[in-house]
Coronin
Amino acid sequence: QTGRIEPNYPKVCGHQGNVLDIKWNPFIDNVIASCSEDTSVRIWEIPEGGLKRNMTEAALELFGHSRRVGLVEWHPTTNNILLSAGYDYKVLIWNLELGEPVKMLDCHSDVILCMSFNSDGSLLATACKDRRLRVLEPRSGKVLQEATCKNHRVNRVVFLGNTKRLLTTGVSRWNTRQIALWDQEDLSMPLTEEEIDGLSGLLFPFYDADTHMLYLAGKGDGNIRYYEIGSEKPYLSYLMEFRSPAPQKGLGVMPKHGLDVSACEVFRFYKLITLKGLIEPISMIVPRRSDTYQEDIYPMTPGTEPALTPDEWLSGVNRDPILVSLKEGYKRNSKVVFKAPVREKRSVVVNGIDLLENVPPRTENELLRMFFRQQDEIRRLKDELSQKDVRIRQLQLELKNFRNSPKNN
């Protein structure tokens, strides 16, 4: 269905603060993970046929961060493994079968700006506000590679499929937007850098591993640039760009199995245009005259069947994603369903630390209420202190009079 929705259309509105990130589950079409300024991560299960009324109750609520949560990321090959990054500089790995964090990555010294898994989920790349690019082994928390980006301030990072390379977008020392290509096993120097323009909006990278295409879209821009990624120099080959007069605030991407293969559609964006209050679909189509299935632009691609269980992945097993063909169109054969665990205890202990101990206020209203309660407590203590000061002076005067009385002399 397309067209303008009504102002009172049902929404998912269970968070108590601004929602900062959402991600669809790659294996279950109707499950979403979201994170918010209220320090929580929530899992939502959208009913078949869409929402009929506002959804305020999440299927699962996850509390473990002490400050607002800015990023969530699903594992690419394992069901029910979710990563979250908060403004407490920590990354939590959640096992949704238990509803608890099973690992805490505490190697960042500032806010984490972006996270990206490699194709089999064995490595995690992070871009941090401390101007460092890191490649981590998420299960052990070990930092395998680290780059100090003095000339290239990294904002976004993405793994380029199984090519063992990373692409980052950021800002140069002259405040021009640029992209850089890195070898994941040696982050001492980028393989190549390319300046884009002098605008100020963030550059969002989107990589299609099937066609080796890189799409760059800037926040506040109206265009989307296309590049082809090669295995040899110059590595990045600029092709062309899509132009539009309407600036984009954000972009979403349709999974491969949702594309129209009969029209040779290889990528589809959903462009958020706040000035017009709409979401516009943008299709990337390869012009072909033949009506037959194009094997070269639609190779085997990751499907909706997980390759591992959470216990297998946490025990150290790595496995490539299960590939499917799009020749016969998308057929949902996956039997994966989401079952929220039943939890009673409220303590969350990871690495010997209780993450829910002394949790700060989660929303601005809670912060104000706590502030006013503390102000009342301070006033009460000041009054009590002044009363005791008066009482002390009275006792001192009585003691002095007692000492100076003739009877004592």
